[in-house]
Design goal:
With 216 residues, this protein is of the alpha+beta class. The chain is built from 5 helices and 11 strands. The radius of gyration is 16 Å and the shape is globular. It starts with 6 loop residues before the first strand and ends in an 8-residue tail after the last strand.
Amino acid sequence: MQRCGLVVLMAWCLLGLAMPAAAETRTSSYPGTRPGLFMKVFGPAQPPYGFVRFCDAEPAHCHAAMLAQERFFASPERLSELDAVNRSVNASITPLTDEEIFGVAEFWTIPTTVGDCEDYVLLKRKILIDKGWPASALLITVVRDEAGDGHAVLTARTAQGDFVLDNKVAEVKLWHATPYDFVMRQSYVNPRVWVSLEERLIDSPLVMAGAPPKSD
């Protein structure tokens, strides 16, 4: 079982959140899709502190220019890529906390051999973008896991639904088929902006622990 390090999501206020978040709430509908395939956005949220520092250090991974607003139509081959990348990265990265690796509570980076949950997400996102996936379809997402702890996953935003790539499990699932409560994620309009996935915005830092399950 892969685990995520203890990471405190310290809020970092950014200017200009409201406009991109409002744009995201006007998501196009797709005839023939079942209700619940797509996450609902409730408004702006404050991005994790570690994410802000990562973007400052690696701005190329947080570039907002020319992002597509329409959902990415994923062919069966593209959906298979999600599964292959999720399994490959989960197998290639040894799970360690940021305290164990860097001696600090929170440090986001693209891993090579070791990392915690958000590092898995960053690597999967990079690999899929290199394979031709649009950045607007690959959104870092924060959830509450089975124990109520914070955990980071990658959401693939497609016309077929919102799929979750998780370092805890090999299988890629639709978001509502996971055991998680979804808290916030990147905006597809601007990767530096985050939006809330719950009606009540979190009032305090969320601890990301990635504990094993008790029993998209």
